[in-house]
Amino acid sequence: MSLARVVRAARPVLLLALLVLAGTLPACGPDASSAHDGESWPMSVEAPAVLGYVALRADPGRLAHWLGDQIGWTPAGLSGARPACALMLDASVMGGDTALCLPVDDEDAFRASLEHCDRVEVLSDGHFELHIAPDHPLAMAQRALRNVGQSGMSPGAILSALQEPQEYVVPIDVVFHEGFALLVPTYEASVVTRRALDELAGLWRDEPFAVVVNADVQRLAQTFHKEIESFAAQLRNAQLGAGAAGAAAMFAQGRDGHGAMGGMPELPVSGAFLWELLGALRLDELAALQFRIEGPAYAAVLSSVLDGLLADADPTEAAPAASPAAPESERAFGASLRIRWTPGSDWRGLVDALRPAPELEGAPLVFAVDGERFASALTRFVQPLADYVKGEGPPADRFAQQLGDLLRPWSGLLAVFGDDDGNVVSGLSLREGASFDVDAARAWLKTLADAAGWKGAAFWEADPEALAAEGGLQFMTFDGALLLARPDELGRAGDLARALHEAAGAWTSADGPALRVESGAAGSIEARGEDGDLVLRGSWLAGER
Q1: What pairing do the DSSP bridges indicate for beta strands 98-103 and 84-89?
Q2: 66 exposure class (CB count in 10 Å sphere: 0-12, 13-18, 19+)
Q3: Does pLDDT of 158 surpass 50?
Q4: How far apart are CA 476 and CA 14, in angstroms?
Q5: Are 25 and 86 within 8 A, CB to CB?
Q6: Is-contact 257 178, C-beta < 8 A?
Q7: What do you get for the CA distance between the two ends of the chain, in Å?
């Protein structure tokens, strides 16, 4: 199957994904910092009942054509001066769940395109209804999302809702506000949308971007707490087991009905441990998420993708986003994810322990923390797992504390060294005069694995002498460093250990990422703490391999 056919077949999925982005990722919450704290792309807005926003900067002609191809209405009079924005609203108080904000430079042309669309019914001046066919992906997605709220994500009920012969009727009030056409469900929604747009003004006044998706998880949890609780209860009580087993059996049958595609792999740990691990991640302490994609090369890629969705052409045959011969400024693109937790979260303790990582020659990955502070924060973080392994009480407290004690010899610098032959050596810097207790670490991991019902390879139980005899990875202790490498790397291990130890002793307070991952000229990934938030960034050059 050609890529063009795959893209055409995936249109309903892509449209559903757009609906999810524009309609289910929340973007504002009472516990997150205010939009007026200087953020160019605010993690929160103060406008009430706004659960999320997505902003997309795209060519207005392609955007209009794409909307016409997907929902049957091709807006006219669009402008490329500002991004298009989609807000998700709390439907229980706003009368609808979505507000669409389209930049316009010709209000009359925009209104006329809506009034003369076959799928639009004109109710009165400024009030419309958009009718979407029952088999359209938007109508199917809306029925599925509505059913999720009623049934708590019952797979059978959702599949049944997808087959219902009901069209999707979207009430639309059109209001023009400072260069935008606001398509909102009610007057109240128009008031809230105007407030939200005023708070998001930095999105188009600041540097250009391609996509911004912002989610306030706290307000999402508050708005949909019943649905979330229902879903969690189903997972906890294994009520989805039969349905999941049936889906796995169908998948295993393959196209020929004889298991050609194979079955589902067996989990290496018990289901009870997975549930405890999910709780230990403290997802309920997430406050907000923000994802951005930007850069001139990405904007060109986005245009190519839209062209591929609009035409029956193979998008890989479109003009390349950026030629390798083009200047780097034209080939640059990047992505970032900012994660914010609620005040007092144990995640914040880990983020606050991050430190700028030095650049080490020959080390494509370097990670740095305040070793002692990180060990203390990690002790608190693993307490829920310790309670699962040992039961609540002093034994669990000692098990969690043991992990912190194991890490205290670490000064806080980790590096992975590589060479042209693909050989890799990993190393931890150690405090002056300290040594790492490898045997105690193996015992701690074994205790955790036994409680988790681990079924995989128990590498922590491998005999060190047998590993050395077979040329496997083993720990090597040098002055100031602990390395993990093959025995034949012993020749350069001493030099790497000294480089790691010297870098740990030469740290400065200069700003910089705590994690550096370099992939040559093709790009890099970094992570850092910013005001208690964890920020992950990646940057690349189009055309590099």
Answers
A1: antiparallel
A2: buried
A3: yes
A4: 50
A5: no
A6: no
A7: 25
Q: How far apart are CA 68 and CA 503, in angstroms?
A: 58
For residue 464, give every residue at least 6 positions away whose Cβ sits within 8 Å of its Cβ, in sequence order, or none. 474, 475
Over residues 262-297, the pLDDT tens digits come to: 444 567 888 788 888 888 999 889 999 999 888 777
One-letter amino acid of 196: A
Alpha-carbon distance of 272 to 259, in angstroms, equals 29
Beta-carbon contacts of 241 under 8 Å, excluding residues fewer than 6 positions away, are none
Tokens of 405: 């004690």
Do residues 333 and 25 lie in contact, with contact meaning Cβ atoms separated by under 8 Å?
no
Tell me how far apart the alpha carbons of residues 409 and 428 are, in angstroms, rounded to a whole number.
Answer: 10
CA gap 484, 472 in Å, rounded: 10
Two structure tokens written together for 496: 């790497």
The two structure tokens encoding residue 509: 């307070």
pLDDT at position 209 over 60: yes
412, containing H or E segment: strand 410-418
- With tokens 């810097």, the residue in question is 429
Exposure string for 236-270, b = 16+ CB within 10 A, e = fewer: eeeeeeeeeeeeeeeeeeeeeeeeeeeeeeeeebe
Distance CA 181, CA 79 (A): 10
Question: What does 245-264 look like in DSSP terms, one character per residue?
Answer: HHHHHHHHHTTTTSSTT--P
Q: What is the DSSP letter of 87?
A: E
Show the tokens assigned to 65: 């054509």
The token duo for 285 is 């302490």
Distance CA 236, CA 137 (A): 31
